[in-house]
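Task card 7
Instruction: Convert sequence to structure tokens.
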Amino acid sequence: MRDVVDQLEGWWKNGQTAALATVVGTYSSAPRQPGASMLVGPGGEAVGSVSGGCVEGAVYELGQQVLGDGRPVLQRYGVSDDDAFAVGLTCGGIIDIFVEKIDRTTYDQLGTVADAIRSGSPVAVATVVAGPAERLGKRLVIWPDRSEGGTGSDRLDDAVRDDARGLLDAGRNAMLHYGVDGQRRGEGLDVFVESFAPPPRMIVFGAIDFAAAVAKIGSFLGFRVTVCDARPVFATASRFPGANEVVVEWPHRYLKAEAEAGRIDGRTALCVLTHDPKFDVPLLEVALRLPEVGYIGAMGSRRTHDDRIERLREAGVTDEEIARMSSPIGLDLGARTPEETAVSIAAEMIALHWGGAGARLAEREGPIHTS
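Output:
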């Protein structure tokens, strides 16, 4: 909903009604991830996308139906042999889409949720999408320290609240399955949790030309990007327009302080581009011993890599800890320029996150997406 929340809130504030269609489940080569949303507005407007164009027409008609009768609907779309190009997913995937009516009576917390999304404050929205008819569309809005709304069962609210906070901490969306009264091993009621966590962080160490390109592509991928370097003459905002902030500090000191402040987590990417042992060895000592971090990559030639490994071992860093580091950084794309190298680094991060092999799709058989 993040992409359509401003438009949705505008109608909501004016007392108008819209239909919200949300991808709540995906299988095989689905074109959009859970959380992708599309609106059908009070004047027939279509805003957003749930499939990249494959089933938007069918979802639009379903949205108009929901606007007419007010009843939420969970609909599955897959390949249809008869009319795949009309209402099916020609990519071969399957998506589940939940369509609901949104107005001040069905979603009175929308304004608060919209404010939290815009400010980057963590909030999760848990919506009943399958189960008894009288429970469909009921929702619980969960912050780290409070919640509003309800699913129609106190026991279910307690279970969803605990599970949703775990998902919110990880920045994940998920479908949760319960018994109708919140039994964790039960079945009969499905709740979709959409987490609106602050953007994941990318910290780029080393104020060099490659860092400017990495900062730019990191921002494009949705990271909040920090560039850090101990040299004030190079670490300037004007040199790194793609970064959200530029920090002048010794890299290892900055990372240690950020970790101690709780600002490093399992979604954080650390790109060490200094390839200077007086900077990167103390920095990597800190980075490789962090309990949670999403990605640690270090730039350098094979000679630099071998020297770095030797220095880290002399500093007491174990082989298990060293194995957490991607060095030399990036995938083998034959990159030469800073921009090409940034693509190589981003490609490695994406492949590691989703379990991709980094091979050419043209040379593979089977589904494009395996998870």
